[in-house]
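Recall that a protein's primary structure is simply its ordered list of amino acids. Everything else, from secondary elements to tertiary packing, is in principle encoded there. The following example makes that idea concrete.
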Amino acid sequence: MKFTAGSDYDGARLDLALAARSGIVSRAEAQRLIGAGAVTVNGRAATKRVRVREGDVVVVDVTAPPPRAPVDVDIPIVYEDDDLMVVDKPAGLVVHPAPGHRGTTLVEMVSGVSGGERFRPGVVHRLDRDTSGLLILAKTAAAHAALERMIRDREVRREYLALVAGHPDARSGTVDAPIGRDRRNRTIHSTRTDSPREARTHFSVVRVYARTTLVRATLETGRTHQIRVHMAAIGHPVCGDRAYGGRDCGDRLGLTRQFLHAVHLSFAHPFGGASVCCESNLPVDLRHASDKAAREPASEGPDGG
């Protein structure tokens, strides 16, 4: 792909300029191509921090290096049109290629052909590897930009079911606490941070068990590990979440990952405004854990008293 930058690109970072071009689905894909040495500006290999000037000639070899071939694995597609898709991600699957990750990702699994053109889906928001449920992926650069804006402007409703340890004091509430890298343990996120970012999670109680509570959580912001961090911060970590205090609860219920599932997504379609509303049922492992929580005695005593 070759193009001459017009006035609308003057001063833009190269990766952003590429992401806006037809055929480059996402900023991450643009950065991958730049990092692979597949992009030149005025005949010189470029870095992603290069700023494009009006009249610059940009050449992109979109076939080098070739991406890994899509894997023939059945990922449930809940909704799809020419612009976007909503998929039901299984637990244990990484969403997007990243440094240090080996193995196939969800993006590679659902790459395909739409309208005769091959597409590589752009990630609009993320789910942790061991969180299951609904995820929006863009199939075009225009859809990617529009959906990112909608996420930023809080026009996409995202709801999760989580089984948490103990019983919250209220039937519903809001955790409004900034999140960032934990100041002591840089591998986790926390409200104890030197780099706080605004974060709000709304929750309501769905069902109360003897030692746990099933809650529905709605994201107002979308920080890394937000629900997991916020529920732990109020003393009710997500069961099975070994990073944030849910190990004991998870072990009792036979969980091998955190009990967190993206159960609902709704938004107005970015082109035309039609309502898109998707639901996902709890997967088998979480249903089994929920059933076990319902049978759990109120204490660890032999008679449950």
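Residues 64-72, 301-305 have pLDDT under 50 and may be disordered. The longest helix spans residues 141-152.
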